[in-house]
Amino acid sequence: MRELSHWAANLRPEHIPCRVLKLAASQVLSQIASIRAGLEHPLGRRLVAAFGHPMQRDPRTAASVFAALGSWLNLDDTAYAGHLSNSTVAVPLAFAYARQLDGLSLLTAVVAANECAARITASATLGPLRGQSAVHTHLAGAVAGRLHCDRATADQWENAFGLAFAMPNWPLMRAFLASDARLFNTFTPVRTAMDACDAAAAGLRGAPDIIEHQDGFLARFATVPLPQAVAKGLGRRWHTETLSFKMHPGGPGIDAAVDCAAEIHRELGPLRPEDVREIVVEASLYTLFAGERAAQYVDGPRSPLGALVLDVPYPVATTLLTGEFSVDDFSAPQLDDPVRWSLARRVRLEHDTAMTRELFLSDAPFGEAVREAGPLATPWLRGFGGDELVDLVGGLEAGGRDFSRSTKATGARVVVRLADGRTISRTRLIPLGAAGPDTRSRHSQMVQEKFLSVGGPRRVADTVERLHRMRKGGVRRWIEAAFLD
């Protein structure tokens, strides 16, 4: 933790490759789109009624509200490792606005937060918590995002990390899937991190070895601890390059399935339930795992949102009917449409072993951690997918490569068997927006489209590529336009 703290506290824009800063700019706009989407949903409006609009004077509370609004629709961006943006963008946004920072300072704070949060999350990736349930990501992301904006000393970073990780959050799946408590998944750890920063500034000390100590974080949160991941390749190996941008709301594997369903819709037009004999979604074990957990709670329009965002049949059916899937489909009147639910009942999931193999060959969400662990990963693999998964993954090459060619292969195949005997299928290994060659070449265009799709002002989207050149006043006006127009 000491090495990470000193590196991050001293990180300056000139230390960061241009390609990484450009990814961070896209990440900022993408997460602003997610926050705007959260603001428009009825549950988002209730959160604002409880805690205030994110454009409020207190940046600590603003950061927590930003974090919550951007997370719970599963429209938040991810990386290896973690759902980073809910803290690594949310907190720098709030503090850059309050502290009147320029664009380059904002982007540098985002990168610093990404690198800290991703590394600490990676160290516990082979553990019981994954994806959005790994909320400890946001303890790290929020501490780093705020302290870089505050120009805090390395000692203050180290103490704030130690204090934040003194009592890391552990969400209960019942609350996560069956209630509105999902709104607190990021709100609570970000608020804890704000308290840790205040305490460290006042002179309170945290344990510097809180991550790796035998009575520390990894001992409780990791099945296979990877403490070496925390400081590995600092300044050379940029976890920000593993970013995947969420173009559709929903959990693991839904993105690729929606992409495939949209292609089928473009060919066949709207599909009615009576036109379809069955719909098969073939996907990795990860998609099936999340979908099966959610299915226990899915009950048509009455489904709790925490479960619905992880459900595969509803978004696939909706996309086959309408050609797209958006956050509006998680609320009335769209959610109440009986035709969608009738078609969703014709959807079933099947495991595709080749897609599971490709999932673990890619860097995110697990592959790099399994490579880093080597043979020590076997107990975690067995716990996740049994001996079949251990045999399927086999021996992966050693970890440690850089992330300039990172991929996230959360693929899916959608097969539609029509009542007239025809069959049509589409396959996508890397979803639109996920880490890979396509995203590296046009991420700015992708996130601008995402931002505009949730009603964001065009002048904000058109200027994101100039964010690094904006002066203090320009950044404030840009943030105000993004949320208040």
Describe this structure in words.
The longest helix is centred in the first third of the chain and has 23 residues, at 18-40. By secondary structure, the protein is mainly α. The protein has 2 domains: 2-247 and 437-484, 2-methylcitrate dehydratase PrpD (Orthogonal Bundle); 251-432, 2-Layer Sandwich (60s Ribosomal Protein L30, Chain: A), CATH 3.30.1330.120. The chain has helices at 2-9, 18-40, 42-51, 59-71, 85-88, 90-99, 103-123, 137-149, 154-164, 173-178, 184-201, 217-221, 254-268, 285-295, 305-308, 313-322, 338-344, 353-361, 367-373, 378-393, 437-453, 458-462, 472-484; strands spanning 276-283, 347-351, 412-418, 423-428. The chain is built from 23 helices and 4 strands. Strands 2-1-3-4 form a 4-stranded mixed β-sheet.
Q: Could you give the topology of this structure?
A:
Blueprint lengths: L1 H8 L8 H23 L1 H10 L7 H13 L13 H4 L1 H10 L3 H21 L13 H13 L4 H11 L8 H6 L5 H18 L15 H5 L32 H15 L7 E8 L1 H11 L9 H4 L4 H10 L15 H7 L2 E5 L1 H9 L5 H7 L4 H16 L18 E7 L4 E6 L8 H17 L4 H5 L9 H13 L1
Parallel strand pairs: 1-2
Antiparallel strand pairs: 1-3, 3-4
Strand order of the largest sheet: 2-1-3-4
CATH hierarchy, class of the largest domain: Mainly Alpha
Helix content: 40-55%
Number of domains: 2
Net shape: globular
Radius of gyration: 21 Å
Q: Looking at the chains present, what oligomeric state does this protein adopt?
A: single chain
The third-level CATH topology of the largest domain is 2-methylcitrate dehydratase PrpD
Given as residue ranges, the uncertain stretches (5+ residues, pLDDT < 50) are none
CATH homologous superfamily heading of the largest domain: 2-methylcitrate dehydratase PrpD
Give the count of helical stretches. Answer: 23
In percent, how much strand structure appears in the residues?
5-15%
CATH architecture of the largest domain: Orthogonal Bundle
Let me know the number of strands.
Answer: 4
Biggest sheet layout? 4 strands, mixed
Query: What is the H/E order?
Result: HHHHHHHHHHHHHEHHHHEHHHEEHHH
Q: Which structural class do the helices and strands define?
A: mainly alpha
Mean pLDDT across the residues is 95
